[in-house]
Amino acid sequence: MNNYIKPNWPAPKNIRAYTTTRAGGVSKPPYDSFNLALHTGDNPQKVIANRNKLIQELNLNQEPFWLKQEHSNIAVNIETNSLPTPVVADSSFSCTAGNVCVVMTADCVPILVCDQNGTIVAAIHAGWKGIANGMIQSTIKMMGIDPSKLIAWLGPAIGPDAFEVSQEIYEIFSKQLSENRSAFTKHGNKFLANIYLLATNALKDNGVSKVYGGEYCTFTQKDLFYSYRRNGEKSGRMASLIWLE
């Protein structure tokens, strides 16, 4: 299990959560080697082999609930979405043991969420567009639980020294929350953005005060992670998974 990151957070004992790294799979360069996405141009057979390896290594009883992610604010309940093809959404949640919520990322923030009693879990794909579009608040609202009972972990994303954005993005977030201004540092005629802080601010603004993680940089830690900003269209994807045992 050296190729997996286990969240360092005070989750209940029946919560299982992991993020993959880029190591330990069978994909060939430039997708080397544990790419889990079918939409990036990698050999589909290699991706399926990687997904099967994931299921085996994590001892999953069923296929994770893969999504068709489009930077939306759509959250889905796995219990009511058992379609064989991926649904368009950027987060999923479940109250049923064995249902595996999963999101794929390669710079965006994967957010894993559970409650302190171990009765519900969620996985959120939170890029800057998703955060701006309300993906985090949409998921929390759909989960239907007191947000003060929730805890969240921010998985590997692009770090604050590597994420250059435009004045327009700075203005979008500044207008949404005054606290967001501290997530931006002037960088020439652009800004460096701390996407971890933007995600944290959105969580806290929606009642989730217990937030952990946020210590990696997908852009600079190239041996560990894929990065869309670094590698473009031919970047693989990591997966962040959470389920109730």
Find the count of extended strands (DSSP E, 2+ residues): 15
Sequence stretches where pLDDT stays below 50 over 5 or more residues: none
The CATH homologous superfamily name equals CNF1/YfiH-like putative cysteine hydrolases
| Overall helicity | 10-25%
**Can you summarize the main beta sheet?**
6 strands, mixed
Quickly describe the structure.
The chain contains six helices and 15 strands. The protein is of the alpha+beta class and 245 residues long.
How does this structure look, described?
The strands form 4 sheets. The protein has a 6-stranded mixed beta sheet with strand order 4-6-9-8-10-14. Strands 1-2-15-7 form a 4-stranded antiparallel beta sheet, with no helix packed on it. Strands 11-13-12 form a 3-stranded antiparallel beta sheet. A hairpin with a 2-residue loop joins strand 12 and strand 13 (190-193). It has helices at 44-57, 128-133, 135-143, 167-176, 195-205, 228-231; strands at 4-5, 15-20, 67-68, 75-77, 87-88, 91-94, 101-105, 109-115, 121-126, 150-154, 164-165, 184-187, 190-193, 210-213, 238-244. The two termini are 18 Å apart. The radius of gyration is 17 Å and the shape is globular. By secondary structure, it is α+β, with helices and mostly antiparallel strands. The chain has a single domain (4-162, 211-244), classed as CNF1/YfiH-like putative cysteine hydrolases (4-Layer Sandwich). The mean pLDDT is 96. Helix content is 22%, strand content 26%. The chain has 6 helices and 15 strands.
